[in-house]
Amino acid sequence: MELSCSQRQEQIRIRKEKEQSGKKQVKEYGATGTTSATSSSAAAPAAPLANANSPEAKQQLQKVAQATSALKSATGSTAPTTNITKALDAASQGKSVASTEMKELEPLMKDFTTVAQDPKLANQFKSLANQINQTQRQQQK
Questions:
Q1: Number of neighbouring beta carbons within 10 Å of residue 72
Q2: Which of 10, 88, 117, 128 is the most buried (most CB within 10 A)?
Q3: Are the beta carbons of 121 and 115 closer than 8 angstroms?
Q4: Which span out of 24-38, 49-63, 75-89, 109-123 was modeled with the highest average pLDDT?
Q5: What is the dihedral angle through the alpha carbons of 84, 89, 91, 95, rounded to the nearest 10 degrees?
Q6: Residue 76 φ then ψ, to 5°
């Protein structure tokens, strides 16, 4: 059975509506008031530590601060490390990010945009992303 053009367009419209119903509306970086549907399967947040005062929790917080400081330095960001950490945490969980926090992520996003536009950098980032994913899988075991 061959479908007419209008029938095919209707099928496509219905499929898109179904896809949209399973996705969250979040404000995208650089958007000026529009929202875009993105996957609801955001990166899983780090497992909360049972006791925030435990030595393990303090060590984890110190590692996060060191890593965020390194990112801050590499991107030339002047935002406080804690604010960057908070903004990254919210964004990675698919939560809405306040405009002030978004501005603090701007240097990181500019660098990421550059990566997305340069195939050589994209391949280097792909290798790094694979290492990150592998590390996360090992930590979940």
A1: 20
A2: 88
A3: yes
A4: 109-123
A5: -130
A6: 80, 20
